[in-house]
Structure formats: structure tokens, C-alpha cells
Amino acid sequence: MAVVKWARELSVGVESLDDQHEKMLVLLNGLHEGLMSGKGKIELGGVLNQLIGATASHIRYEEGLLARAGYDDSPAHRDSHAALMRQFCGISRQYETIGPSALSLPVMSFLRNSLMGHIGVADIRYRDCLTANGIR
């Protein structure tokens, strides 16, 4: 069962960003499913690394679009990205040290809430700016 589902309400109006957001949610679901089915450290670590890599790549791309559009809240948005990546990297370091137990249900809930909160709140705020500047 999926922990998170992509919903139209999460759309930021830019197909490439929506696709990246959806991919991150698919990876989060894969991580959760792997954890619940007892997958090993290597397999779960691979999915965790994919999630972190996809998130980092997405952030670089998104910040480029925000700069191009002249988004007024770019500094705060960058700060929220940096905080998110610090948290994700901290989870990754903990995972490398202690293995799958680092991905407890509270940690999985944190990952879910972090992604959904960022996409559903912070990213939605820039939707009008991007579309007004012709970024679709």
C-alpha cells in the first residue's frame, strides 16, 4: 500500500517539476514497501540513495527555474531546500551506521511529511510566479 499518492492538488503547473515530485513520492513508497517487506540493507540503501539523489537533482533544477522566473521568495525557498537535504543526509548517515532500523516508522513518517509538506505548501507558493513568467 502506498504511503503517499500523487494528487492533482500537488501540481505546481510545470510538468517537469510535477514529474520530478511524483518520482520522489514513488521512491518514498518503494522505500516504505521495502522496509515493510523486510528487504535487506543493500536494497533499502539503494532506494534511499535514489530518493536522496532524485531530491538533490530536483532541487538544483527547481532553483534554476525559480531564479529564471525571479521568484521573490527564492532565498527562503533555498534555505528550506538546504534544511531538507541536511535532514535527508543525516538519515542516510544514520542508515549507513545502523542499517534498516534507522528507517523506523517515525523516520518514514518524517520523510513523508517533509516531502509532502514541502511540495504541498512551499512549492505551491511559486506556482503563479512560474506560470506568469511563461514557465510551464
Concise structural overview:
The protein is mainly α and 136 residues long.
Count of runs of 4 or more consecutive helical residues:
5
Element string (H = helix, E = strand): HHHHH
Strand-pairing-aware structural class:
mainly alpha
Strand segment tally:
0
Low-pLDDT stretches are: none
Strand content: under 5%
Largest sheet: none
Distance between the termini: 32 Å
Describe the secondary-structure layout.
Layout: H1 15-36, H2 41-69, H3 74-98, H4 105-123, H5 127-132
Helix pairs in contact: 1-2, 1-4, 2-3, 3-4
Family: Belongs to the hemerythrin family.
Organism: Rhizomicrobium electricum
Domain Hemerythrin-like: 13-119
Description:
This is Hemerythrin-like domain-containing protein. It comes from Rhizomicrobium electricum. InterPro entries: Hemerythrin (IPR050669), Hemerythrin-like (IPR012312), Hemerythrin-like_sf (IPR035938), Hemerythrin_metal-bd (IPR012827). Belongs to the hemerythrin family. The protein has 136 residues and is mainly alpha-helical. Helix content is 74%, strand content 0%. The chain contains five helices and no strands. The N and C termini lie far apart (32 Å). The model has no long low-confidence stretch (mean pLDDT 95).
Main attributes?
74% helix, 136 residues, mainly alpha
